[in-house]
Amino acid sequence: MKSLKSAARRGAMISVAAASALALASCSAGQITQTSHQVAAVDGSEVDNANGTIALRDVTISLTEQGQAGVKFTAINQDNSNKEHVLKSITVDGTKATIDGDTKLASDCSIVGGIKAEISKLTEPKSGCIAHVITSVENKGLAVGGSKNVVFSFDSGDIALDATIAAPVLESGQNDRQVGGEHANHSH
Fold first, then answer.
1. Are 168 and 118 in contact (CB under 8 A)?
2. What CATH number is given to the structural domain containing 61?
3. What residue stretch is flagged as signal peptide (predicted)?
């Protein structure tokens, strides 16, 4: 028969091992829980209409260095009844935007909109169901970093959201940041 000290020591070691395994498992589970509500890093706002048939993603008001403005967005027809929808208009803070292109939105299809300089960089897909439209809106004091109310009017109703005003993404290698330029001798 083994001594009571030996049995107690063995029991303590088993308890420590079980507690360690539980602590490690719960730590991992906590990490998964902490990241379960994160979304993709997309610049613009997103919203679905009340019945979930139309989804708007990456809604941003684009503002060029020359002051030209337009609405960047992706509209997706998620209607389970396979119904075609039509984008009738877009307004930015009450000012109607111009939409150049086909605004019919067939079932499971998308419309990608934006300013001419950005849309001209895209290629029409050979397959799939994505249409590109050019948008423009009168710049009535829009400033990068601000936000304005944007209303998308579809045949099925209006979808309103606030959108950030942003400069278009610069093309890689086209902007000289002048490292060591005029601020090289200044300390922070």
1. yes
2. 2.60.40.1890
3. 1-25
Give the Cα separation of 58 and 61 in Å (integer): 10
Tokens 């002051």, located at residue = 67
Q: Is residue 173 part of a domain?
A: no
As a whole number of angstroms, the distance between CA 93 and CA 31 comes to: 41
Beta strands in the chain (DSSP E): 45-48, 54-63, 69-77, 85-92, 95-96, 98-100, 104-105, 110-114, 130-136, 147-154, 157-166
94-118 pLDDT tens trace: 999 999 999 999 999 999 999 998 9
pTM comes to 0.70
What whole-number distance in Å separates Cα of residue 110 and Cα of residue 101? 13
